[in-house]
């Protein structure tokens, strides 16, 4: 299933789409809050999901399970989650500079957490 969210100058939109068939499972529209209007992304100058995935896979060799493009503190960030059994790795890639900002692995079997933060 794909979960997609976005907004225009007046409304926020959310949709869930069946990844196999492409059919919309659920969609929702809400009036946009005034403070959300400043969070728009200019995607014309950003790397795409495939490029972000290639960069992230240098830090995680597992299967990609989820990816998100968001604006955080003024930066466009691709957040990509990988899964391999009980192990999850989250990698954050700056969508402009193409640098890995964070790589964090959770091993649920051993309750261990390994962090790698780059500045």
Summarize the structure in words.
With 119 residues, the chain is mostly beta strands. It has 1 helix and 8 strands. The chain has one helix at 49-56, and strands at 2-7, 11-17, 24-31, 63-72, 75-84, 87-94, 100-107, 112-117. The strands form 2 sheets. Strands 4-5-6-7-8 form a 5-stranded antiparallel beta sheet. The protein has a 3-stranded antiparallel beta sheet with strand order 1-2-3, with no helix packed on it. A hairpin with a 2-residue loop joins strand 4 (63-72) and strand 5. The radius of gyration is 16 Å and the shape is globular. It starts with a strand and ends with a strand.
What descriptive keywords fit this protein?
119 residues, mainly beta, five-stranded antiparallel β-sheet, three-stranded antiparallel β-sheet, 1 helix, 8 strands, 7% helix
